Amino acid sequence: MDIEARIKRRQRRDGEPRLLVDYDSLSPVVHIDDPVNCGPVLERLLDYLDPVFDGHLPPNAYVYGPKGSGKSAVVTALFDRLVRVSSVNNAAIHTTTRVQATFAPRFVYVDARETTSAFAFYHAVLAALVDESVPKQGIKTEALQSRLKATLDGPQTGAIVAVDHLEEPGTLDGEAFVDLCAGLPSKVSWLAIGRSSPDETVLTDYTASEIQFEPYQSQVLIDVLMTRASSAGSQRTLDHRLARDIAEWADGDAHDALAALFGAADEATRNRHQSITAADTAAGIAAVPRPCVSLGRVFALPENRQQVLHELLALRPDQQQSVRATSQHIAKSVDLSAATVKRILYELAEDGITRRVTAERVDRKGRPPSRLEPRFPTVVFERLFAAR
Q1: Of 169, 184, 212, at which residue does a domain stop?
Q2: What residues have CB less than 8 Å from 51, skipping those under 6 apart?
Q3: Number of domains observed in the structure of the chain
Q4: For 138-172, how does the pLDDT look when each residue is reduced to its tens digit (9 = 90+)?
């Protein structure tokens, strides 16, 4: 957190000692500039990028690991820093011992959760490479490809494109992604990021190396939690012992750990506690379902689907006796018909965002009704949804 943000947080005090929380610092969908204790895997990524410093494009590569292992956090931080370095130098990235390098690659990060079509993919890559705005309407996919080739037409240009969250439900599968990459200029290398092991994806048929992320070790995850908690409030916001409890429960998953910490801080704030207590921590952990869907997937959903989820969480249990009844209640609060809401609810269940659970019934006639159970951290979702 920067100095100005810290000052503003303290200005919100009203004279009464209480916990002050900056929720962005605790959010599982916010990545910090300098991820905690990621040196070894960062070095492996830099080894992959090493040809750049000699004036060459690296080969394609595949980054993989389970949810919450830090793939997105580390890759986005590294690419953001490389973009800044190359922008400041306005020339090739090189060291003092490699001054002969004249190659000036561009670094592009694309989230596959937000680019599910060929047009969206090429548009995202092009928009990251040019300064001017790229229109989203009135232009064909082929025109985007032509502009990409023209943008990278030069002996000293090229691009490394990192594409995150591949092969998740609702995103590009491996074969579709490879087909899209075939439409990129020849002077583009790609870094695919996913969860599948190398022998379970077609992506590795087109890569020269694989970089694995392991789940966080307990002590490292404790450091992550303590660092985020300190940024969110103060050094006394979270006790080290409680951070250990969350880390051990999360079992190496930083997303779930941060979601639990967020929920604990929210509970402490509502109860006007001066710091997070054991009871707050227990409530935060209980609010995170296992297995848990990444909140990044939820916030990548279209706005109308997020609104439906928001209204779903606001319903009383007696209003959720069946999907049909749920749809009718939600339709009263959104600009959608009950039939459309019902279709969206079923699609969310099919994608694993929610889970259909057989509901209790008062008679024994026909098929038992079902209700929908969220599979994502609802406390965090509601807070961030309201902020947006």
Answers
A1: 212
A2: 57, 58
A3: 3
A4: 999 999 999 999 999 877 789 999 999 999 998 99
